[in-house]
Amino acid sequence: MRKAPFFFIPLLFVSHIFALPMYEPVALKKTLVQITFKDPDDGGNTVLESAFFENQRIRLRPRSPNGVRSILHKKLSPGTYKVEWTVETDLRTLSERVPRRETFLVRPEDVWINILIEGKEFILL
Fold first, then answer.
1. Which of 11, 18, 51, 112 could form a disulfide with 58 if both were Cys (CB 3.0 to 4.6 A apart)?
2. Residue 76 has what pLDDT?
3. What is the pTM of this model?
4. How far, in Å, CA of 116 to CA of 71, rounded?
5. What is the maximal distance between C-alpha atoms in the chain?
C-alpha cells in the first residue's frame, strides 16, 4: 500500500479552510438601515408627534438643536419594510394632524440605506 506524500495532507486541509467563506448564503446577508426622524426648520410650526417602524413604536426625544428627534439603526434582511409617522402642523389658525406611511425595499445587493424623515417628507439618501 502506497502512502500519500507528506505535503499533500496539510495542503488539502488549508485549501478547505480558505474555501469555506466563499459559500456564504445570500439569505444571511443583512443591510444596515439608518432612519433619522427630524422636525423641519420652519420655526416650530411642524412637529413629529409619533413614529412607528414595522408596527413598533419609536421613542421620539425632545428636539435637539439641529432638529433631530430620533435615529434608528437596524440590520435588515432583504424585503419590504414600512415606516409610519404622524405630523402635527400649527398654522396659527388651524392645527392639523397628518398621518404618513411609506414603504421601502431592501435589496440583497444593498450594503447601507440612509433615510431621512423630515416633517411630512420621506427622503431616501
1. 51
2. 94
3. 0.73
4. 9
5. 97
